[in-house]
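Weekly sync, protein design subgroup
Attendees: M.S., D.O., the rotation student, P.L. (late)

Item 1: inverse folding check
M.S. brought a backbone from last month's batch and wanted to see whether the design step gives back something sensible before we order anything. D.O. pointed out we never logged the input encoding, so this time it goes straight into the notes. Structure tokens as presented (203 positions):
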């Protein structure tokens, strides 16, 4: 089963578990997001330094010191699609990246004390508070009123976990050692994600 087949299965289960009116709010948000423009291959990304879950800072310079960096932007630990994706990358992608001299890092807009979504991750998980890095790539966006209301009904208060009602479109970017983007794959439809094989192919 591919990653996106597994994510589709998660979404099918969500359809059965969520109230229909709430599920439709999320589906409508997926459809609207498809028109957004993002950073492109060949663009430069500014250097950054972000804290990990334990507060230890990591810079982009650290990540590309010995080779390219694969940056995975995800929505947060409350997102089941994100958790499945990061577990899949841990299992299928991380060993291959290590053998190629590339690093893997996940980045979310959550506060530093709530960024780690899955136990046992062996790659850095960083906190992009206020979505500064994500906004520079065109990934950050304000949550609409209907989606905010639906999330609050499900017990997710982004004001508490992010400090703001703002999210990021899931994305994977590959950055070379001079901070040029060599691969950009953004998923405004948050149920889909970048397949591990496509990331490896980009390297």
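Designed sequence read out in the meeting:
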């Amino acid at each position: 089963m591919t990653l996106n087949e597994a994510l589709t299965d998660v979404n099918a289960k969500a359809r059965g578990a969520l109230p229909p009116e709430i599920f439709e709010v999320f589906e409508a948000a997926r459809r609207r997001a498809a028109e957004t423009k993002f950073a492109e291959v060949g663009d430069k990304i500014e250097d950054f330094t972000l804290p990990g879950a334990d507060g230890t800072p990591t810079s982009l310079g650290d990540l590309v010191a010995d080779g390219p960096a694969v940056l995975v932007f995800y929505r947060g630990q409350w997102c089941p699609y994100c958790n499945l994706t990061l577990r899949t990358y841990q299992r299928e992608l991380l060993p291959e990246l290590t053998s190629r001299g590339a690093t893997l890092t996940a980045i979310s807009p959550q506060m530093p004390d709530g960024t780690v979504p899955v136990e046992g991750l062996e790659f850095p998980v960083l906190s992009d508070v206020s979505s500064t890095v994500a906004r520079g790539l065109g990934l950050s966006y304000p949550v609409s009123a209907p989606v905010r209301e639906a999330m609050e009904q499900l017990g997710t208060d982004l004001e508490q976990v992010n400090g703001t009602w703002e999210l990021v479109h899931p994305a994977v970017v590959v950055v070379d050692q001079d901070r040029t983007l060599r691969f950009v794959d953004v998923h405004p439809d948050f149920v889909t994600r970048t397949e591990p094989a496509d990331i490896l192919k980009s390297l």
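Discussion: The chain is about 40% helix and 20% strand. The first helix runs from residue 3 to 17.
Action: P.L. to compare against the previous round before Friday.
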